[in-house]
Amino acid sequence: MNPIKIGLLGLGTVGGGTLKVLQRNQEEIRRRAGRGIEVAMIAVRNLDRARAIVQEAGATVPVVNDPFAIVDSPEIDIVVELIGGYDLTRELVLRAIANGKHVVTANKALLAVHGNEIFKAAQDKGVMVAFEAAVAGGIPIIKALREGLTANRIEWIAGIINGTTNFILTEMRDKGLDFDTVLKEAQRLGYAEADPTFDIEGFDAAHKLTLMSAIAFGVPVQFERAYVEGITKLEAVDIRYAEELGYRIKLLGITRRAEAGIELRVHPTLVPAKRLIANVEGAMNAVVVNGDAVGPTLYYGKGAGAEPTASAVVADLVDVTRLHTADPEHRVPHLAFQPDALSDTPVLPIDEVRSSYYLRMRVADETGVLADITRILAEGGISIDAMLQKESREGEPQTDIIMLSHVTVEKRVNAAIAAIEALPTVLSKVTRIRMEELN
Amino acid sequence: MNPIKIGLLGLGTVGGGTLKVLQRNQEEIRRRAGRGIEVAMIAVRNLDRARAIVQEAGATVPVVNDPFAIVDSPEIDIVVELIGGYDLTRELVLRAIANGKHVVTANKALLAVHGNEIFKAAQDKGVMVAFEAAVAGGIPIIKALREGLTANRIEWIAGIINGTTNFILTEMRDKGLDFDTVLKEAQRLGYAEADPTFDIEGFDAAHKLTLMSAIAFGVPVQFERAYVEGITKLEAVDIRYAEELGYRIKLLGITRRAEAGIELRVHPTLVPAKRLIANVEGAMNAVVVNGDAVGPTLYYGKGAGAEPTASAVVADLVDVTRLHTADPEHRVPHLAFQPDALSDTPVLPIDEVRSSYYLRMRVADETGVLADITRILAEGGISIDAMLQKESREGEPQTDIIMLSHVTVEKRVNAAIAAIEALPTVLSKVTRIRMEELN
């Protein structure tokens, strides 16, 4: 059989990796797919640089400047979008679909924001939009969620899905350093970008979480409803106290099916140190999925980088190659559930989320302080699971109190914090970090 | 669309779990599959017990005594084989295939031994034989290997794929107890069977490893070539010494693409304590897959039990339901590679395997002993990575020496061990345990 022809939009890190993997493993891939996968055209901004990369990969592929030349080319079966960003890519992907081409993309931002429109267009046209590479790089988590766990009512997902922030948190803990210091180091080493906002403020993780949530619960993508909190305000002292209490702090994307709706939130989270996911270090990614039949399962691997991401892109290419002439009913629905069977379960506002909490406050070292605080918590219906009070230093009439709460509703904790901060004996703002047992 | 009709052969732990999950999550499953999955007939030995289970699950399904009634029924689309064992099941599965029915099975033993015959028959007849539940219970590892990592040249797989032995090893380590004591406890708790041979001697793990090896490397299943060593001879002292050196001992199934062939082996293995897989405790399973593009990935979850295994059975049912009327070319090949593209790379005999080694010996506490031993190792081309010599106890003229070697060929180690054991100052047999860095 003739090879299937693909067009690459973009030849950056992931594009270059994809070209290289397709070239190096072409025989292995053909033995699996039953058919070769040929890069027939590449569109880039910088033609000279691209030609050098193509040559280095040992390939011979025409390189063009205009991405629409690929999207409109009758020669191309699958468009691989690796440009990134929303505007141009939305136009390119929708035009590829309108032209009856399948699309493979690593663009989590595009799908988290415009996914409903794109999947609808693909559905109507009978083409596939595959996006394994958009979440957790080389880890086949989309496939696991969408196909591997179809027996389950998924209860929750919790994932380390941003390598930059996990690298920073690992360094902060290992070296006892503050966020700013470690961020600079991460930038120097290439683990963080010059403008790291997207990563460190949690948006990248929220894009990925949005996609997983839709697939897990059969709801539309709704990034605009996600609660997003990054790691920029995290202090070394809380990492240390958490450690003393048997916890690690990770930036987790969490989505859960609660009674009143779906939780969709990204924030720093205390996790028991003995959990496998608490031991995921450096730039690695891991996702825990809890299904009602299977229980907790975990998927771990490299969440970024040229070849790990290319691994996911090419896996999608093989899937699409296998099914591209098949009746659409034989294909897996884009969001795991049949398009006419999506649910309108709402995403809960963060106030309504249920979690445990780590609370740290600086208090005057006087009689009755603790009584006042615990009374406020009790009146708020918040029960305490563990407490740590540090001895005040010689001559210092202040001390840190750390409390771990049982599971409660966030708005109750916020109300209690306001009352606690109003106490004259409480000398600082209350630092509040969410905590999950994940069992 | 009418529901697809399945027939269950067997209603034991997994069969009961499958019935329950299909019943409880029928709506969720239909929303995903686009079609209901209906248990239309069940064959069992004990009719009364089965009827009680069916009633308890809230289902109404005819129960029969003769499994061939299902396999031959024109009403049944998919046969789910959950009986276990080789002989009857081989006949049933082949007859189901001959009748043009798809098969879903959890039977690792059957496929590891008769897989080539069964997959060939299915291929010729154009039906699917799905077996996600045969390896690592609810973890979708077959799907990850067969579809999620198709871009990769798989380099090696290492897995904790038997919960019973991992439970025993965890207890031996936590409590410092010997194998026999812990086995009895495991039997009492239901983690080990009355006749635990299959688990503790490594055969169950070897069946599962054989299937993963075939899928990873595109070779036929060849269980008869697997090297199988269980945990029955493992001593608490070695678990302790390994710990001191920074390692844990796990029963691993390892398959690796080496230069001269494929390694296929199950045995106790030292693994660095900091690896995620070293921290997989109790009856849990985990598999590490290393691909050339993606790097190391890990998959973790429950490897046995009614509902975790049912999770895999039902995922297969959804896959088969989706593709059962599709042209066979749209389906994933049984062993990941196209049947005409299998390779005849041989499985290496254990003597030719490359590994690191943990060696423990009891020696006389005399000058020159260590010099003799290290000379023998050096002459055998074996280099030492770490050594631990325990101080001899007061008045005891003997001591334990533990050595960790660098990677070498097994036959060299065996020759060196024979020479070491011949030394008059070496007072015991040399305990040899293989060791893998898994990075």
Describe this structure in words.
The first copy, chain A, is of the alpha/beta class and 439 residues long. Chain A has three domains: 4-130, Rossmann fold, CATH 3.40.50.720; 141-302, 2-Layer Sandwich (Dihydrodipicolinate Reductase, domain 2), CATH 3.30.360.10; 354-435, ACT domain (Alpha-Beta Plaits). Chain A is 38% helix and 24% strand. Chain A has helices spanning 13-24, 26-33, 47-56, 67-71, 87-98, 108-125, 141-148, 163-175, 179-189, 197-200, 203-217, 236-244, 306-323, 369-379, 410-421; strands at residues 4-9, 37-43, 63-64, 78-81, 102-105, 129-130, 154-160, 227-228, 247-257, 262-272, 284-291, 295-302, 354-364, 384-389, 398-405, 408-409, 431-435. The longest helix of chain A is centred in the first third of the chain and has 18 residues, at 108-125. The radius of gyration of chain A is 24 Å and the shape is elongated. The interface between A and B is large, with 68 and 66 residues. Chains A, B: InterPro entries: ACT-like_dom_sf (IPR045865), ACT_dom (IPR002912), Asp/hSer_DH_NAD-bd (IPR005106), HDH (IPR016204), HDH_cat (IPR001342), HDH_CS (IPR019811), NAD(P)-bd_dom_sf (IPR036291).
Structural class of chain A: alpha/beta
- Indicate the CATH architecture of the largest domain in chain A: 2-Layer Sandwich
- For this structure, the quaternary state is homodimer
Main pleated sheet of chain A: 11 strands, mixed
- What's the count of strands of chain A? 17
What percentage of residues of chain A falls in helices of 4 or more residues? 25-40%
Provide a count of the helices of chain A: 15
> CATH fold name of the largest domain in chain A, please?
Dihydrodipicolinate Reductase, domain 2
**Low-confidence spans of chain A:** none
Strand content of chain A: 15-25%
Q: Count the domains of chain A.
A: 3
Average of the residue pLDDT scores of chain A: 96
CATH superfamily grouping of the largest domain in chain A: Dihydrodipicolinate Reductase, domain 2
